[in-house]
């Protein structure tokens, strides 16, 4: 059995969360081949076949309350080159990301997929995971678990203390999906809140509703 943890990262924080999730998956299911790849590596060329894994775990930074994009990353990198030329970026930060990855999902209909993001701790920063889970489902994947967000303490990080441990624990929960039993899938059944929950339900799992979109206050919401 196989699991693929895919990340889009600008400063390396989302990649670190992806690696911690993979460790958690491997702890519970040492028999499963767990790989961590960037979205750019998966999109290619050559593209990685997404029909092979039994579970996809996909994550990205939150930019302007939503999923990051090539445009948002390249804009931030251009700003960094002007204002903070010493900042380091992920090697493939200017390459394809999760939005391009979504175009490959129809080639793997019914694959189980979980979504996560990195975000600032402010309630005005929003989160990308819920929208990513919805996009994965729309593309043909079967969402599992609750979309999860992990906190960074500033624009470039670092991650808040304890977030890597929390990501590892979430990976252990996701490993229950690969166990293939209703009992093991139980911890991944999401609790629903509000009328929007019915739109998120699937036969195998469901996402988590979040608060309404915050007011358009000016805030820097581009962590990785």
The largest pleated sheet is described as: 7 strands, mixed
The helix count comes to: 7
Number of β-strand runs? 7
- What proportion strand? 15-25%
H/E element sequence: EHEHEEHHEHEEHH
Distance between the termini: 29 Å
CATH level 1 name? Alpha Beta
Query: Mean of residue pLDDT?
Result: 83
Shape from CA axes? globular
> What's the architecture, going by CATH?
3-Layer(aba) Sandwich
The CATH homologous superfamily name equals Flavodoxin domain
Describe this structure in words.
32% of the residues lie in helices and 17% in strands. By secondary structure, the protein is α/β, with parallel strands linked by helices. The chain has a single domain (2-200), classed as Flavodoxin domain (Rossmann fold). Strands 1, 2, 3, 4, 5, 6 and 7 form a 7-stranded mixed sheet that branches. Strand 3 (55-63) and strand 4 form a beta hairpin. Helix 1 crosses helix 6. The longest helix is centred in the C-terminal third of the chain and has 17 residues, at 163-179. The two termini are 29 Å apart.
List the keywords.
single chain; 224 residues; alpha/beta; Rossmann fold; 32% helix
Helices, strands, pairings?
Layout: E1 2-7, H1 13-28, E2 33-38, H2 39-43, E3 55-63, E4 66-67, H3 70-83, H4 98-101, E5 112-120, H5 129-139, E6 142-143, E7 148-152, H6 163-179, H7 182-185
Parallel strand pairs: 1-2, 1-3, 3-5, 5-6, 5-7
Antiparallel strand pairs: 3-4
Helix pairs in contact: 1-6
């Amino acid at each position: 059995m196989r699991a693929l943890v895919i990340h889009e990262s600008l400063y390396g924080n989302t990649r670190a969360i992806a690696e911690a999730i993979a460790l958690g998956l491997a702890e519970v299911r040492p028999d499963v081949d767990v790989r961590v790849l960037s979205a750019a590596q998966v999109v290619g060329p050559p593209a990685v076949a997404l029909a092979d894994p039994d579970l996809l775990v996909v994550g990205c930074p939150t930019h302007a309350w939503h999923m990051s994009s090539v445009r948002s990353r390249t804009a931030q990198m251009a700003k960094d080159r002007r204002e903070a030329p010493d900042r380091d970026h992920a090697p493939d930060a200017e390459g394809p990301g999760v939005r391009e990855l979504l175009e490959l999902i129809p080639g793997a209909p019914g694959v189980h997929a979980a979504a996560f993001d990195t975000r600032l701790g402010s309630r005005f920063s929003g989160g990308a995971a819920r929208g990513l889970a919805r996009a994965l489902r729309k593309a043909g994947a079967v969402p599992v678990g609750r979309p999860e967000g992990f906190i960074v303490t500033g624009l470039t990080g670092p991650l808040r203390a304890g977030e890597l441990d929390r990501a590892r624990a979430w990976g252990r929960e996701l490993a229950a999906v690969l166990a293939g039993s209703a009992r093991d899938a139980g911890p991944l059944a999401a609790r629903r809140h509000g009328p929007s929950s019915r739109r998120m339900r699937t036969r195998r799992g469901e996402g988590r509703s979040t608060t309404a979109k915050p007011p358009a206050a000016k805030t820097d919401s581009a962590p990785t």
